[in-house]
């Protein structure tokens, strides 16, 4: 029991560290548009995002239950706690690498890929619930496509409605509206991303025999919410620069369109209990909004670099987690 408690404590510490890193890694995406259009100052955007992330993280639990039980059954894994530790270590390493180079890669892909890889390394392919894994993968793939299409449609409608409006008054109005959409964006991020760490901790509690249901304890919700809010307060300026300036040249109206699009897709996924990548959704929404004006507005070289990172994250983190698990099993 003593060793089990030590391992669970390690999982909690790593999960909260992952949440903290996620706060400045992925939340940077949520506030990048409002900062780049000068709707909010960086300080105001971070305070707003931290607050709304905290509120959002405490509101839903469906995604946490999906992460905690759909990839593998923690009650059937002999080495459940080391599996989770290896997954978290791999996901954290990948998040820090992509943050350092300013690449808006997906924390969701990193965590899901890493957990799958460590399960395979420990118990083989048969231990993975591929039906549940494919459901999660489907949501991760479809959500950015949906965000691109909706962003294109919303921006096309806005361009038609405001085609004859005074540019100065239009910019002033949409800068104000972006304050509201930035809050909505940060709230939606909290409802989905913070739950991933909640699910991982619950997975560990079940694997360690401390609970036998997928219900999320309140202390888990609260600590994960606080960790993400604290991470958000640190900020992620490299990611903000990439998302806010290197995909398209954002104006208040296009920033508003991309915020509404991505927040709606993320909150919709949360309601049905599916984890999605806020990075993918926000970046795809911005691409869709830019394409509504003309395809040349989108800096496709940056988009290509992002898509490459998206494609390699799952296999790299799965391999990395498997290696971490195997090395740890040899050493300990």
From TrEMBL:
The lineage of its organism: Bacteria, Bacillati, Bacillota, Clostridia, Eubacteriales. GO terms for biological process: phosphate ion transmembrane transport. One of its GO terms (cellular component) is membrane. It is found in: Membrane. Keywords: Membrane, Transmembrane, Transmembrane helix, Transport. Pfam families: PHO4 (PF01384). It is a multi-pass membrane protein. It comes from the Bacteria. This is Phosphate transporter.
């Amino acid at each position: 029991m003593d060793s089990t408690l030590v391992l669970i404590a390690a999982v909690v510490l790593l999960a909260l560290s992952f949440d903290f890193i996620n706060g400045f890694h992925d939340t940077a995406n949520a506030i990048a548009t409002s900062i780049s259009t000068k709707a909010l100052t960086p300080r105001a955007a971070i305070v707003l995002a931290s607050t709304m992330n905290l509120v959002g993280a405490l509101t839903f639990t469906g995604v946490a239950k999906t992460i905690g039980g759909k990839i593998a059954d923690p009650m059937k894994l002999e080495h459940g706690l080391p599996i989770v530790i290896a997954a978290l270590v791999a996901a954290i390493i990948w998040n820090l690498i992509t943050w350092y180079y300013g690449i808006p890669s997906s924390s969701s892909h990193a965590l899901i890929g890493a957990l799958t890889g460590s399960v395979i390394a420990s118990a083989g392919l048969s231990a993975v619930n591929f039906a549940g894994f494919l459901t999660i993968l489907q949501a991760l793939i479809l959500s950015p496509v949906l965000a691109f299409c909706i962003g294109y449609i919303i921006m096309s409608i806005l361009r038609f409605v405001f085609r004859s409006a005074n540019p100065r008054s239009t910019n002033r109005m949409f800068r104000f509206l972006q304050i509201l959409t930035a809050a909505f964006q940060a709230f939606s991020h909290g409802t989905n991303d913070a739950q991933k760490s909640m699910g991982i901790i619950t997975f560990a509690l079940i694997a360690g025999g401390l609970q036998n249901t997928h219900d999320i304890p309140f202390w888990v919700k609260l600590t994960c919410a606080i960790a993400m809010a604290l991470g958000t307060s640190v900020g992620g300026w490299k990611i903000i620069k990439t998302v806010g300036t290197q995909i398209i040249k954002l104006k208040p109206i296009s920033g508003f369109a991309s915020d509404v699009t991505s927040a709606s897709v993320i909150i919709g996924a949360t309601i049905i209990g599916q984890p999605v990548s806020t990075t993918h959704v926000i970046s795809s929404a911005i691409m869709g909004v830019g394409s509504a004006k003309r395809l040349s507005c989108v800096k496709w070289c940056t988009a290509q670099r992002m898509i490459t990172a998206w494609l390699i994250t799952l296999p790299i983190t799965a391999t990395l987690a498997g290696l971490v698990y195997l090395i740890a099993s040899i050493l300990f």
